[in-house]
Prior knowledge:
25% of the residues lie in helices and 27% in strands. By secondary structure, it is of the alpha+beta class. It folds into 3 domains: 2-67 and 132-203 and 296-385, FAD/NAD(P)-binding domain (3-Layer(bba) Sandwich), CATH 3.50.50.60; 95-127 and 208-293, Alpha-Beta Plaits (2-Layer Sandwich), CATH 3.30.70; 398-467, no CATH class. It is globular.
Amino acid sequence: xxxxxxxxxxxxxxxxxxxxxxxxxxxxxxxxxxxxxxxxxxxxxxxxxxxxxxxxxxxxxxxxxxxxxxxxxxxxxxxxxxxxxxxxxxxxxxxxxxxxxxxxxxxxxxxxxxxxxxxxxxxxxxxxxxxxxxxxxxxxxxxxxxxxxxxxxxxxxxxxxxxxxxxxxxxxxxxxxxxxxxxxxxxxxxxxxxxxxxxxxxxxxxxxxxxxxxxxxxxxxxxxxxxxxxxxxxxxxxxxxxxxxxxxxxxxxxxxxxxxxxxxxxxxxxxxxxxxxxxxxxxxxxxxxxxxxxxxxxxxxxxxxxxxxxxxxxxxxxxxxxxxxxxxxxxxxxxxxxxxxxxxxxxxxxxxxxxxxxxxxxxxxxxxxxxxxxxxxxxxxxxxxxxxxxxxxxxxxxxxxxxxxxxxxxxxxxxxxxxxxxxxxxxxxxxxxxxxxxxxxxxxxxxxxxxxxxxxxxxxxxxxxxxxxxxxxx
Length: 474
């Protein structure tokens, strides 16, 4: 595996990431995952550690390049710890720098990009987002997937899908087909699989002005600040954020409605020279570039038969709040254990209905938050860290106490140390966990949320039978 200077992961010829080597003509798998972004890779990891035979297919010849979604929120970092990639993620990135506002070529003052968290807020060891360019995030996730025996078939495009009572048949552009018991569309906001299923998306344009995003090398600009150049004259804003763990900056620039940003090296250099005190030649390297119109959209449903929608295929966010990738990772984390339980015969098939029941309302809430932040109607505060999201209203959440304490059924278990034992050490792994604390008895789901809560264990066995949890936690 090789990496170019801006992080595009290339598959070496002859490795098992070659589509023909991975996708056999009559291959059967438990789960087919379409898309090898963070959503598909996290789901692949979670299924692999459960012994589920899953295959990730990716239309592109390599992992997607570019810094893209660079911010990992505290809840995502907790999930990454459970999946076994936290150390690599922490080593690969760094904290966000303070913003520096520029005016007339001079620093004009610092600006906090995120509201500070109180120490120990929401019972987590993490209090702020951690910056890792998305290309590096994906590389770490892919390595973990392969370590667990999983694989990605690059250059493998799904062009059609058929379903019946026992499974899904995905037709590939190569003429081959893959048969799976279930499939997951994790192929992005323009999801071909979602369109093939006929699932619509309801949304709005958050801002009609187009954005240019690029990974660039800049000479003569310090890396200890996120440099912001506000609108002035005929020019709109531009920002240059140093990308932790690299020598690059992520450039973001907004353009007038009705125009289209130039993605050429000359166009990128020109906008930097026009809107900052830097010269065009100070841009010494240009890697990935992209343009987009910020929008918010939510899929009309997250399931069509045996196919599930996850990540950007199910919800598209403005990048302003740093929520899209993180919400997508949580989709995968929610769906993975449910697919594993049903495929293993431990739980009824109806368990899979709770994926949409739980995740679609969360996605709708986060979409509203992202849009409000983009429009300067909300702050990047506690809500963006995603530690307080819960499933209290889910049919899987059963609270039997008349006077429940602060930790209730549906809540995420906080990262606390009780009697010298860290709760997250007890919860780590793919199984359910029974906790008895001073305030009650809790049966904790594999994704770290409380499923059942009671003052004693009365009624616990009934719940176990209802959701298909064995006494061994499987």
